[in-house]
Write a structure and sequence with these properties.
- The complex is a heterotetramer, with two copies of chain A (501 residues) and two copies of chain C (167 residues).
- With 501 residues, chain A is α+β, with helices and mostly antiparallel strands.
- Chain A has 18 helices and 22 strands.
- In chain A, helix 7 crosses helix 8.
- An eight-stranded antiparallel β-barrel of chain C has the order 1-2-3-4-5-6-7-8.
- Chain C starts with a strand and ends with a strand.
- Classes of the chains: A alpha+beta (501), C mainly beta (167).
- Chains in contact: A-B, A-C, A-D, B-C, B-D.
- The interface between A and C is large, with 59 and 56 residues.
Amino acid sequence: MFRKILIANRGEIAARIIRTCREMDLATVAVFSEADRTALHVRLADEAVAIGPAPAAQSYLSIERILDAARSTGADAIHPGYGFLSENAAFAGACKSAGVKFIGPSASAIELMGSKTRARQLMQAAGVPVVPGTSEPLADAAQAQAAANEIGYPVMLKAAAGGGGKGMRLAASAEEIPAALERAQQEALNAFGDAAVYMEKAIVGPRHVEVQILADEHGSVIHLGERECSLQRRHQKVLEETPSPWVEQRPEVRQRLTAAAIEAAQAAGYSNAGTVEFLMDSGHNFYFLEMNTRLQVEHPVTEWVTGLDLVREQIRIAAGEPLRLQQSDIRPHGCAMECRIYAEDPYKNYLPSPGLISRLDRPSGPYIRVDSGAYEGWTVPIDYDPLIAKLVAWAPTREEAIARLRGALREYHVGGIKTTIGFFQGVLADPDFCSGAFDTGYIERWQRTRKADSNGAAEHEQAAVLAAAAHFLSNGRPKESRQQSEASAWKLAGRRAMLRE
Amino acid sequence: MFRKILIANRGEIAARIIRTCREMDLATVAVFSEADRTALHVRLADEAVAIGPAPAAQSYLSIERILDAARSTGADAIHPGYGFLSENAAFAGACKSAGVKFIGPSASAIELMGSKTRARQLMQAAGVPVVPGTSEPLADAAQAQAAANEIGYPVMLKAAAGGGGKGMRLAASAEEIPAALERAQQEALNAFGDAAVYMEKAIVGPRHVEVQILADEHGSVIHLGERECSLQRRHQKVLEETPSPWVEQRPEVRQRLTAAAIEAAQAAGYSNAGTVEFLMDSGHNFYFLEMNTRLQVEHPVTEWVTGLDLVREQIRIAAGEPLRLQQSDIRPHGCAMECRIYAEDPYKNYLPSPGLISRLDRPSGPYIRVDSGAYEGWTVPIDYDPLIAKLVAWAPTREEAIARLRGALREYHVGGIKTTIGFFQGVLADPDFCSGAFDTGYIERWQRTRKADSNGAAEHEQAAVLAAAAHFLSNGRPKESRQQSEASAWKLAGRRAMLRE
Amino acid sequence: MKLTVHVNGVERQLDLDKPSESGEPRAFSLEGIEGHADIQAIGPGMYSILLGARCFEAKIEKGDNGYSVVVGGQRFDIAVRDPRKLSRGSAAAAETGPRKLTAPMPGKVVRIMVEEGQVVESGQGLIVVEAMKMLNEIKSPKAGVVKAIPVKQGGSVSAGQVLLVVE
Amino acid sequence: MKLTVHVNGVERQLDLDKPSESGEPRAFSLEGIEGHADIQAIGPGMYSILLGARCFEAKIEKGDNGYSVVVGGQRFDIAVRDPRKLSRGSAAAAETGPRKLTAPMPGKVVRIMVEEGQVVESGQGLIVVEAMKMLNEIKSPKAGVVKAIPVKQGGSVSAGQVLLVVE
C-alpha cells in the first residue's frame, strides 16, 4: 500500500478523496493555485503545495508542477479526481516515468478512450453498439456539413478530448454548422487544450444511462449497476440517480447494458474505476457514447446503494490488490439520487454566481449526504467549475428518496451567492420527473412550460413582505443586507489591522 | 393515515421527527417554551404553538398545554420523542381521551414498564433474567441499607420513573447510602417529577446491550438487532454502536438475547417501537435492566444497518398498519456508530457549556449523518439537556466506521461553546476501545489513565502559538475573540435599531 | 410605521408596529388585511415568522433593486421605502436613450464581436464573457449604434462593470 | 514584532514578521527555532497555517486568561502579550487571602450548604448549581471561613458570577 497520496485536483472531489485517504491512514498532499490557498481541500490535507497562478493551464493542468509537488513531498501515488488531468494520458505516462503511481487506468487505456473517435472504432470492433458519426476530427465547417448530410440532421458536435458537456453543440441544419463548430472548438480548446471536434447523429429524446465498472490490474472486471443521468442542462448533468427508473422496468436491458460495459472495459484493457456512458432511445436501444476513464462526479449514488467507497477501491486497485468483490457480491439496495448544487442563478438564466459565501447551512439527518468543497466565509473563485456541492439522498424507494431530497433542499441555505437549490425544488415537485418520464431534453422543456409554484404563494408573499419590512426597519440600510455589511466589516478590520502593523 | 402530527418535544429529536413527517407529507406542529421560540424544531415545523415558560414542568411536561395545542391546531396524532412525556402513561391516556393518537405503546404498557419495580416482576414471571434488587421504592436510608446488606455491595440506586442515567447513584458501602439516596431522589424528582428510587445489585464490569424491537397493534413483534451502549459517563450513554462487538462474537448469545427482548415485549402487550435494555457480565450472562417505551436517542445506528426509518415505522404502526417486515426481512449490514455531542467542557470535568453558537461547521461526506437541533447563531439554553447533536458513521466494518468517525470529528467545529468533540477524538484513538474491550466503567478508567496525545504535539503547539500571535496582532484585543465581538456587534445593532424605532 | 413595499414590481401599502419590549407579536396591516406577526431574527438576514400558528422562514439578501427574499422555496424581489423620507429618484431609469450593458458576473472578456460606431440589431451578440469555464454571450437589448466599448479583449471585469454602450 | 507568549503556563519568546502586502509567508523565531509561516484567516478566529508544506488549522476562542486554541484536536491555553506595552498586573493574582468562588456556567443555585462565618475545610461542598439538569457541587479550594454568600438559593447565576467568598 502507498504511504502518501497527492491529490491533483481541487474542490469537492479533492476534499472527498482526502477523506478516504485519511480513513485509510494514508498521508495526503493537496496542491493549490493562487486562487485556492484557503480552499477546503487545502484545509483538510496533511500537506499542501502551491503550484501556480489561478488559471488552470498554469496550475492544475501543469504536469510538471504537480510532479514537482509529488517529488518534493515524497508522495508515492497521485489521485487525479475528475476533470483537469484525470483523463490525460501524457500525465499518466509522466507519473509512471517519475515512479509515482497514477491512481487510474494505464496511459494507453486513457489514450484509447480519450480519443472519442478511436474509442468508437474499438467499440465497433468489440461489438458494442455506437451512434452513427465521424471517426475523425472535423477539419472545417465544409467538411462538417458534408459529414452531417451523410449522417442526417440533427447532429451533435463534440470535443474529441472532452467530456462533461463542454465543447458540445447541436446543429439542426447546415446553416447552424459554422457557428456551432467554432463554439465547440473554442470551448474544447479552453477546457481540454485540444480543439479537435467530431460529429455524431443526435438521438431524438435520448436517455443518458451509464454503467460503473471496477477492474483490477489482474484482468477481473465487475460492474456496480447503472446510473440514470438524463437530467441535463446545456449537456451538463445536474441530477443523477441509481437505479435508472427507465432500465429498472427492463431487467433484460440491464443485463445487456452491463454486459456491454464490461466488454467495453475488457476491450480497452481497462483497470481501476471507470464509467461507460450510453445513450438510450425510446425503444431501449442503447449506443456507446464514451468511456470516462476516472472517478465520476456522480459516484456517490452508486456508493450508497452498494455500500462501497469507490475511492478506497481505486486506491486498493492501484496498489495492485485484486478485487475483493465478485459480481455476485454486488447487490444494490434502494434508490440514491444526487443534485449538483452549482453557484449559478436559476432566476438569471443560470449565470455563474461566484463570490463570498456569507452563510452556509447544510442539511443533514437520515440518509442525507453532502459532498462539498465550500465553507462559510470562503469565496467561490471565478476561475473554475461552479459545482460547489453534491446533495445525495438514499431511500428504499425512488419516491421516498425524492421526498427526502425535497426536505433536505428546504433546509439547505447558501447566503451571499446564488445557487441552483431552488431549481431542484421545482424539478423534484414536477409530476413528470417523479414518474420517471423524462429524457435529456426534459429540463429545457420544463423551463419553458413550468408555472410558478402557486402553492401557498399568498402566505409566502405575506411572510416575505413582513420579513423585508422588519429587516428594513432594523438596520435602515435597504441597499446592503446585514450579513454583507458584517462580512465587509470583518474584512475591513483585517485590512486595517495589517496597515496598522 | 394521520393528517397532522404534533411533536411534543424539542431539540434534535423534534427536528428529526419533523423531517420524516415532511417526507410522508404529514403536516407538523411544533410546541415551544419561551426559551425555544427560535429553536430549530420551530423553524422546521409547519405550525408552532407556545406552551409556556422555560422550565419543562411548565411547558414540555404540561399535558394540558400540549393537548390544548393539539386541539387548537387540529393535530390528530402526537409524537412524544424521548424524555419529557414520552414515557408518561397519564399523557398517553390523556391523548386517548382527547381523541388524539399517541404515537407509542398503550398507556397500560407504558405504566407497566415505567415502574421499574413492576417491570422487574413481570419479566421474572415471563422467564426473562433480571438483576437481583428491590421490587419496591425505598422509603429511607435505613431501609436502603438493610436491602443492600441483603443484596450485597456494591448497589445501584435508580429512579423508579427514570431512564437515561438520571437519578442513578452507586453506593459501595453502607456509609455511602444516605448521600447517594438523597442525590438520586432529588435528581429523580427534578427530572421525572417522581422521587421514587429503587435498588439493584451493581454488576461489576458490566456491558450495556439493548435490543430494538418493533411491534404492531395486531400482535406481531420483530427485533432489529442489538446495540452496544457500554460507553457511558455518569451512567449516561455517550457512544453507541451496532452490532455489539461483544455480542457479534457469540451468535448463540444474540439468539437468546433477541428472543428475550421479544418475550419481554410480548409479556407487556407492547406495540410501536421500543428498546429492551440488558446488562451483560463478562460471562455473557445478561439481565433485563428496563424497557424504554419510546424511540431511543441512539436509534440512528439501527436505522443505518437496516435501511429503515424508525419514525416512519412508528407512525405507520400508530396508524394501525400491520408491520411491513417479517423477521427474515431484517438483514443488518455493516457497522454504525454514534457519538453524542454534548454542550459540555471535557477539559473542565464536563461542566455544561450553554451559550451562543458563534460558528458551526458540521462534517458531511460518505456515510456520515448528523442529527442536530442546533444552528449557527442559536443560543443553547441552560434549561434543557446538553445534547446538541448526534454524529453517526456507517461502514462495512467496525474498524472503518471508527476511522470515518475520527475524520468527521476532525472536521466538526462548534465555536462559542465547549463540546465533547475533542473527548471523542481521544476515545476513538484508544486501542482498548478500538479492540472492543470495554465495559460501562471504561470511560472513568480511561479519563484517569489517559496520557495527553503527544502525536505531533510540538508541531501543533507551534502552529497554535503562531495563530494566536497573528490573531493578537490582527485585532489587538486579547480578551475578546473576533467572532464574539462580531456577534455582540450584531446583537447591539439589533438593540440599537429597536430603540431607534 | 407606514411603509411602501414593491413586491415583484407591484406596490403594496404596509403598516407594521414596532417590536415591543416584551416580544409580543407585532400588529400589521397589509393592503387592508390585518394580522399579528411574531418576527424573530435568527441570523444575519434570516427571520422566523409566526402568523398565528403558521411558521415561515425568510432569507433576505441584497438584490438588484432592494431585497431578494426567499420564503418556502419561492424568491420575491422586494423594495421597501419609508414614504416620509425623500424618494431618491428611484428604480426604473429611462429605458430610452443610451443603454449600458454591464457584466452580469465577474469574468474575463474573451471576445468582442462589434466595433465602436457599428450598427447593431436587437438580440445581436456583442461580447462574450467567460466565467467558471462557461461562455456567456451578451446580446444587444435594442437596435442602435455601439457608442462605447470601455473594456478590452482578454481583460477581467467585475460584476456590474460597463462592457458596452448602445444608443 | 516581538511578543511574549504563555502556552499552558510556560513562557515562550516569539518574534513574528508583519503580514506582507504580497502574502508571502511570514518569518518567525520561536524560542530560537526559525521558520516561515503562511498564516491565513479563514473565518472568525479560524486560521490556516502552512509551515513549509505542512498544513495546520487553528481555532481560537476567548479563554479564561487569554485564548483557547485548538490545533489537531489538542487544546492549548495561550496568552499573548506585547512586551513594549505596560503589563496590566497580569495573570496569577495572589493565591492567599480571600478566594472568590465563581459560577463555572450559567445556572440555578439549588442548594447552599454553608452559612456566612462558617469554618470550612478544603474540598468541602459549599453550594450546588444546576444547569442542563446536572447538579454541580462547588467545593472549597482551601480551609478557611465563609466570608460572604452574595447569591440566594433558587436564584439564577451567570457564568463567572461570584457565589461565595472563602478567606
